[in-house]
Amino acid sequence: MDRTFAVAIGGAAGQGVATPGDIFAKLFARRGLHVNAYNAYQSIIRGGHTFLTIRTGIEEVKCFGDRIDLLIPLNQDSIDRHLRLMHSGSAIIYNSDTIRPGGPHEGVQLCPIPVNQLSKQSRSKVEQNTIALAASVKLMGLGFETLAEVLTEQFARKGDKVVTENLDIARIGYDYAAANFQPFAPPLPLSEMRYALLSGNIALAMGGAAAGVKFYCAYPMSPSTGVLHWMASHARDAGIVVRQVEDEIGVINMAIGAAHAGVRSMCATSGGGFALMTEGLGMSAMMETPVVVIDVQRAGPSTGVPTKTEQGDLWQMLGAGFGDFPRAIAAPTDILDCFKLVPEMHNLADRFQCPGIILSDLLLSEGRSSIDPKQLTFDTEIDRGEMITTNPGGTTPYNRYQITESGVSPRAIPGVPGHTHTASTDEHDENGVLISDEFTNPLKRRAMMEKRQRKMIGIEAAVKPPVLIGESGAAVTLVGWGSTDGVIREAVEMLNEDGISTNHLQIRWLVPLHGEAIVKILKSSKYSIIVENNYSGQFARYLRSETSYVPDGYIRKYDGEPFMPHHIVEAVKEQLASETHKTLSVPMHEIMV
Amino acid sequence: MATVLEPQKLTAADFKGKVDPDWCAGCGDFGVLSSLQKVLAEMNIQPHDVVTISGIGCSSNLPGFINTYGMHTLHGRALAVATGVKMANHKLHVVVTGGDGDGFGIGGNHFIHTIRRNVDLLYVAMDNQIYGLTTGQTSPTSRIGMKTKSMPYGNVEEPINPITLALAAGATFVARGFSAEPKHLADLMKQGLEHKGFSFIDVFSPCVTYNHDNTYAWFRERVRKLENDPSYDSSDWHEAMKRATLWGDEIPIGKFFQRTDRLALDQAEPVLDHGGPMAYREPRIPLELAKRLIKELM
User: Rounded to whole angstroms, how far apart are CA atoms A320 and A275?
Assistant: First the structure.
């Protein structure tokens, strides 16, 4: 067996792909194995084809990988789609009552299970899944005890009878596999570590709780809804007011209202919802009320492909809202980073009293990964910036929008005596009085514009420039942003193993960009390639517009599915070998999901 | 010798804003502003305990003309912003002001949902049946036949009735005022501020520049105070609906409806039960809870 092992479960939505998926992920995490899971699914409640890949290994698993070692098709459609991709040494566990496998490649072990014959009770899909699960555990060499423990927990809510039934049927499947199939050799390694399993959405929501978010609101929109679900189910324990709002226009306005009254406030949506929020974003900037907005990107434009991933919203974020105003935009690079970035963004938004945007995507938000629980720190720094929450006395006149060198003016929240003022979306003077209608004044307008924009200097200084990963002077430099970090890292390892020296630059902060630092790194690269999950190379265009830097090549993917490591490796090789100076590669996604 | 300082009684002058209103001379909005200032002073509510929130439009300039905390937000969004303010600090008095275009046109969705949530705030709509700040176009409350720059041959669309709309959406306090009846209006505002829940007052606030149909004189001839009818019971929703549809020679003003048996959103939200306003709570969650949140994921 290789250093990682991937199980895939395929079936129709409603057939119960998620539960065995959860159980596998838990089994691995509890045996001290890392996990990375990606679910390819569709916008349908019953039917279609759902394909969940769970990859595990003793070291950090950066992405869902290139290969499936064990396939569990729950219906004929699933085996038909994936059989040809199964390689020598892999296995397929299936219900021989309902599935005809066809001819696999040489060396693929077919593991038919006569479910009807094995199950004493009435036929049901749950039995099929539990038997398959138990047979898999046997083949992987994980031992029955952990499975029994996880099954007991999983079905505890349904009562003892269901637990016992599942344990009995699991034992049957386990024993059947022991008697009839060849286990994977060697068995999966184990460690004493215990990991937490988080989706990016849970990490973002928990990051909010760690940041001290006290108001969260949203309108349901895939693939961001998971943040709302976590927030709603933990609201009472964590003391967070959570509201589901009538639309995303209401969402951002409500979030800003709460922030203005003094709490840390956050909301999440996807591209379409964000489009509705853009006027509100400008209000946050103009009133100088901080708000943090999470955009979980999905394949656009318009309704697009709601259950598929893309990095296609960058330009929307850069240009969201009319007029010029300061903002901060960052894209987390993995699921743990989803958790870490949220408090950082809140600190920045509070300190500079402007909107902060977190750019996740379906891959991160709905993917799952194992995290060392020690990394989930809830004692992170909370910096609310210059906020006035009490007035101990004195009646010095208060100017909410006082012109300062930093551009930041101390912000009094409503309720503080002696500091009444009006915050306005109209242009205003230092004391908040409108200079938009009766008292327009070019000098004042210029001063206020410059005051607000000066905050960008502070924001830039507060954020570290990106650093090159790997040896400088490599033959190839791969540049990515946000969620592609894991897959690029793995591709870099593979390229280096193949003798193509490769290093890697991953961009986390998009605004501020630190363009000079990026160009300094890339100027010394021999062949630079920008890798991104969109059609037009949104980051490449942005980098060029900010720095005039043009890379040597591009790798892009816009079919709704994320990159797999071999897509990048093959594209790099293709570009290096190209005599016709091919500079754009668009890898084909081989898995039909 | 110790002296006991009586807390100074507030007057309307304490609520005078940094600048004077820039409304046209004779605008109905003056009456609304002065009634609001007078009521807040009478109720002895401190200026810093009030947040006046508006959208965009002539009447939405009001927060700039009153000495309270103010938010002059986006066109149509004041109620959403106000809900957020109330959730973050439910001890604040929240007053929302705006016009008919702002509240019933672009902001119609938030109007319905803020009512549904029964957010504890006073919403005063200055209804002049015209878009004033954009120099005179048809509004959602313009009457059929009214000629404006956007409907020069006369409006053919049925207007919204803000009162029946609010009643149908489940508003717990619904009233109508007339800016030329400041005492009556001030009394409605007082009742609205005292009401725990969403209080809506639609105020006839004539536009002297662009609406030549629904003038002061036109309203004066027609308005009849519900309070003058001793048989009227404002707890009767069906009767309120009936009265609200009256329009013509007689147009009722006053309190159409009030019910006090529904919780306001801040009362219904369990997180707000203990611990005071969210804005003043400890941001960090307890370590024990943090451990539990992580354990759930193991």
Answer: 8
> Do A253 and B109 count as a contact with CB atoms less than 8 A apart?
no
Half-sphere exposure of A482 (CA within 13 A, CB side): 32
Q: Which residues of B172-194 are buried (b: 16+ CB within 10 A; e: fewer)?
A: bbbbbbbbbbbebbbbbbbbbbe
pLDDT of chain B, 298 residues: tens digit per residue: 455 555 679 999 999 999 999 999 999 999 999 999 999 999 999 999 999 999 999 999 999 999 999 999 999 999 999 999 999 999 999 999 999 999 999 999 999 999 999 999 999 999 999 999 999 999 999 999 999 999 999 999 999 999 999 999 999 999 999 999 999 999 999 999 999 999 999 999 999 999 999 999 999 999 999 999 999 999 999 999 999 999 999 999 999 999 999 999 999 999 999 999 999 999 999 999 999 999 999 9
Q: How far apart are CA B152 and CA A284, in angstroms?
A: 38
Contacts of B283 in chain A (CB under 8 A): 211-212, 214, 264, 382, 384
- Whole-number CA gyration radius for chain B: 21
Q: Residue A1: pLDDT above 50?
A: no
Q: For residues A356 and A290, give the distance between their C-alpha atoms in angstroms, rounded to a whole number.
A: 8
Place of tokens 């101990």: A392
- What's the pLDDT at B3? 55
The answer to whether the Cβ–Cβ distance between A265 and B82 falls below 8 Å is no
Q: How far is CA A130 from the centre of its chain?
A: 30
d(C-alpha A321, C-alpha A274), whole Å: 11
Closest Cβ opposite residue B72 in set A195, A378, A422 = A422
Cβ pair A309, A299 in contact under 8 A: yes
Judging contacts by C-beta atoms under 8 Å, the chain A residues touching residue B294 are 196, 373, 376
Contacts of B289 in chain A (CB under 8 A): 237-238
How far is residue B179's CA from residue B63's CA, in Å, rounded to a whole number?
Answer: 17
Q: What is the pLDDT of residues A185-241, one digit of tens each?
A: 888 888 999 999 999 999 999 999 999 999 999 999 999 999 999 999 999 999 999
pLDDT tens track for A77-129 = 999 999 999 999 999 999 999 999 989 999 999 999 999 888 865 555 568 89
What token pair was written down for A168? Answer: 């009995």
Strand order in the sheet with B50-54: A422-424, B69-72, B50-54, B93-99, B121-127, B198-204, B173-178, B251-258, B223-225
Which amino acid type is present at position B191? Q
Instruction: Report the half-sphere exposure of A376 (CA within 13 A, side-chain side).
Output: 30
CB neighbours (10 Å) of residue B233? 10
- Distance CA(A235)–CA(A443), nearest Å, equals 47
As given in the structure block, the two tokens for residue A255 are 């979030």
**Rounded to an integer, what distance in angstroms lies between the CA atom of residue A510 and that of residue A455?**
16
Closest CA–CA distance from residue A17 to any residue of chain B (Å): 19
Whole-number pLDDT of residue A579: 78
Please count the other Cβ atoms lying within 10 Å of the Cβ belonging to residue B204.
Answer: 26
- Measure CB to CB from residue A250 to each of B80, B89, B270 and give the nearest one: B80
Q: Which residue of A has its CA nearest to B64?
A: A422
B80–A257 CB contact, under 8 Å: yes
In this structure, the number of other CB atoms found within 10 A of the CB of residue B30 comes to 17
Which residues are B125's β-sheet partners?
Answer: B98, B202
Q: Which pLDDT score, from 0 to 100, does residue A592 have?
A: 85
> Complex ipTM, two decimals?
0.97
Give the gyration radius of chain A's Cα atoms. Answer: 26
Do residues A419 and A392 lie in contact, with contact meaning Cβ atoms separated by under 8 Å?
A: no
CB A378 within 8 A of CB A208: no
Tokens 């016009």 — which residue? Answer: B99
Neighbours of A66 (CB within 10 A): 20
